[in-house]
Amino acid sequence: MPRQFPEIALPAIPSTSGAAEKYDIIVITPLFGGGVKAGVNDAAMPIRAASIRGQLRFWWRATRGAEYETFKEMLKAENAIWGATDTPSAVGARVRITNNGKSQRCAEFPPDKNFPKFVAEYPAYALFPFQGKKSREKGIEQQPAAGTRDIQFTLSLTYPQNWEYDYTREVETALWAWINFGGLGARTRRGCGVLFCAELAPKGADKIKEWFVGALEKYRIKFASAPRGWLTLSDKLLIKKSSTPMRCWDETIRTYQQFRQGRDLGRNPPATDSRSPAGRSRWTEPDAIRRITGQHNSKHFSSITGNENVFPRAEFGLPIIFHFQGGGDPQDTDLRPLIDGKPQDRMGSPLILKPLMLDDGKNTTISIALLMTAPELKEVVLLKTRDENKSYPVRSPAAANYDKSPLKNREPNGSALTGFLKFLTENNYTEVAR
Predict the structure, then answer these.
(1) Cα angle value 258/183/427 (rounded, 5°)
(2) With contact defined as beta carbons under 8 Å apart, do 107 and 119 qualify?
């Protein structure tokens, strides 16, 4: 019999008329991290109430928080509900594990290889941070990480009913969005730690629009009239019917990988040996870095992507480390966001790619792509170059105008995000129109 973990509770503000709700939840794709140490599963406490409350805070901000015009107004309401450094949360959370799930390493190192082989249906393109490290000189320095799935737990939420805010609506809105578009642990925007709760799931593939629009009306979710200073929910939701959660996840990430790196789309075919990886990139960034650094492989003297230094893939999230394989090409460089005139360490992706399980009695799963509304990233900086203070544009029509651009005939203004949504429709994704 599997060991049962104790209930872990976080206190709520006392209320004589508080509501208490329970939700049965399953983790349907591997959970990586979620414990005290980043990226590492905690065997003693695989799911923490504090982590859940942090997720609910984020999704409250993305849904109910969108109605506030300024960050100050939004933060005042957020702190009143979810707490601040000097104020306890009005929402209490309790987790009870009912099934420990199963743990499995995402990959393994073959004896004669320095690159890991990923487990079937574990998408390597989403899981590269967990692939471990091996070298010919030192052997395995870090084993591939283990993820845990099929964990089942009951989440109990308590909150007051007699305060300034309608806590039922505020909390249930965040919960609905978190369960269906978020997850637990690391890399949730790329499908790790995906959750299923029958009570909050769509009832069938033909009922997605009804489910989505119905939730917007039920929870009174307002889309931001203009981008806020934080991510907010949008109606840019695309879906594609698939099969099991793991296969669905793998197929979703493969579509994303194809757009960014696939042969005859993101990259040229290999020059000679068909067993080699795909050839030269068709995106503007590598040629731009060669111009900026003044370094290039002898085969890459001439640009194939135009002559403008533009970095469209920055929209997918930063930082990006560019690593060149060819001799003579630049050393590793580090692309970072420039926000309000200041370089930042990172920028989370506004694009969510994940499986969504339906409550149809068959565990049918669909692929979803959700593009959140985000402040437009206009400029980036390239570190480890001669002029790290120089900024470069993210969007430009020049990124779509040259021959064989991945954005050509998809997005004339050079937005990689919009171009990717168009690519999804070419691959049988349909938009959940309002």
Answers:
(1) 25
(2) yes
CATH entry, 8-106+145-200, from 1.10.10, 3.30.530, 2.60.40, 3.30.70 = 3.30.70
The residues spanned by each domain of the chain are 8-106+145-200, 248-431
pLDDT for 9 equals: 42
Q: In 202-317, which ranges are continuous DSSP H helix?
A: 208-218, 245-261, 284-293
Point out which residues pair with 342 in neighbouring strands.
Answer: 339
Q: What angle do CA 314, 316, 318 make, to 5 degrees?
A: 55
Tell me whether the omega of the peptide bond preceding residue 319 falls within 30 degrees of 0, making it cis: yes
User: Would residue 110 be called left, alpha or beta, if left means φ above 0 and alpha means ψ between -120 and 50 degrees?
Assistant: beta
pLDDT confidence of residue 11: 42
Q: Which residues of the chain have pLDDT under 70?
A: 1-19, 34-44, 162-165, 273-277, 434
DSSP state string for 136-196 = TTTEEEEPPPEEEE--EEEEEEEE-SSSSS-HHHHHHHHHHHHHHH--SSS-GGGTTT-EE
Tokens, residue 225 = 């009239």
The predicted pLDDT at position 318 comes to 97
Query: Nearest Cα to 146, choosing from 108, 91, 184, 198?
Result: 108
pTM of the prediction?
0.91
